[in-house]
Amino acid sequence: MGVGDMEEREVFSLGLGLAAPWKLSGQRLDIETRPHELHLEVVAERGALFSCPECGRACKAHDFARFSWQHLNFFQHHCFITARVPRVDCPDHGVKRAVVPWARPGSRFTLLFEQAALVLVREMPVLAAARFIGITDKRLWRIVEHYVRRAVAGLDLRGLRAVGLDETACKRGHNYVTVFIDMDRRDKPVIFVVPGKGKACVAAFRAFMLGHGGEPTRVAEIVCDMSPAFLAALAENFANAAITVDWFHVVQLFTTAVDQVRKAERRAGKFPKAARWAVLKAGDANLSDDQRQALAELENGGYATATAYRAKEMLRWIGQADSPQAARWRMTRFINHIGRCLDPGPLLEPVRRARRTFASNADRIHQRWQSSHSNARLEGMNGIFKAARARARGYRKTATFVTVIYLIGAPLPEIIKST
User: Fold this and answer.
1) CA dist., res. 50 & res. 61, Å (int)
2) What is the b/e burial string over 335-357, where b = at least 16 CB atoms within 10 angstroms of the residue's CB?
3) pLDDT tens, position by position, 271-300
4) Which of 31, 68, 146, 374 falls between 20 and 30 A from 113, CA-CA?
């Protein structure tokens, strides 16, 4: 063996992080394939002992089997490691396959390859990352799901005192996931994601919290929407927590009602152009000239949509209250005023329903003025949902969407180091 050959193997060995009893025995560049493939052969020293994967006891090899792993590219060449891996004969645990230091059990990629893949997935859609590193997106998803699952299992929720929750559609149809966040975390607030919505999701979060050091009786506040299923489940599972209905969902409630009135009135007859965004935008600060004209036509023409719009805009007056007392007074005035001014006809029924929902949740809505948690936290969840859908573009399973929400929104700083 020449000096140059020895130095070459030492370089590869250092790059792979090989240590006794493993050593590099040879390398081969296959130029018949496209792209070219560099194959590295790793062997164990003759007569070496190997650790039992269960107890770590040094044991003799029982037999060997040949395995290959994809490694980081060597310049422009794809790189693969091949080795004969023993099964060890442990007196306590029987015959078990030994674990190699460059890959996790069951994976056909090296740890360094998986580390690089995770870095890419945090920065680009999974499909694009898979194409970049030359594997299928299905195989890349398996890598990501493994490390995210392991990192989530290590979350520590002992200090959890305030929780926010919201549901979002994970794909077209009625497939939802419910996301729970730590309201006290300024960054990466997601702590639990579960498929579905409603009572079962809250019970699942309580069980998750107990399994990660949390104590449900110590949760002081929960911020959510006005879903009856959520509210009932929270009262049952977090009896000591104050329930705050976040303002974002209050505004959304009346915005949806305005849009329902607009659609019904548009179907009934002639309707001003550009009226849709004129009534759905917040106030008139960002309206175009056409939208301002449409709003004026709605007001002057006695449209039911104008009445619904005025009800929605009164929420801004309530939201500007600078004390709990002022907020309570304004909320009461709002409920009474809307009750008096709404026409009894069917067109405004969506606004009446929204008013009833507002009135029945008035105490929980008022809790906003006694809470120290900003409404912007739950509004920010929409940004997480949007980013997750983009990152998981083309996903086929709800579990995949859940994984991406954890990856970009959960406090998992050790996920890359964990490789």
Assistant:
1) 7
2) eeebeeebeeeebbebbbebbeb
3) 888 788 788 776 666 778 888 888 888 888
4) 31
